[in-house]
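=== RUN LOG ===
request id: a7f3
mode: sequence -> structure
chains: 1
length: 121
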Amino acid sequence: MKKEIEMANYSETKNDLIRLEYPRSNDEISSPLIIKGEARGYWFFEASFPVVLVDSDGLMIAQGIATAKSDWMTENFVPFKAELKFEKPEHKENGVLILKKDNPSGLPENDDALEIPVIFK
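=== RESULT ===
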């Protein structure tokens, strides 16, 4: 139980940059996974940012793009939505959903991400 609390606190450290409506830390997920939330406009580039789902070994099982649902050229929060289709990994119950700040510059100092632990249903 303590690990769940620690991971939930990690997502709260990004609350001023990106917030998830669904899924939340340690939610059970299945395919297709509909991801909803809001992020500051500068988290996007050209109204989108990458989303990746990995298993507990860090192996990618799905990737996609989150898209802004309103004008993203702002410093305010902008709602977004993404959909990931995936097959539940064999012998793996846990994974991580990673929402990456789009970084067209490629400079490491501009990288950022929100990582949410999930449980495969």
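=== NOTES ===
The chain has one domain: 2-120.
The helical segments are 2-12.
=== END ===
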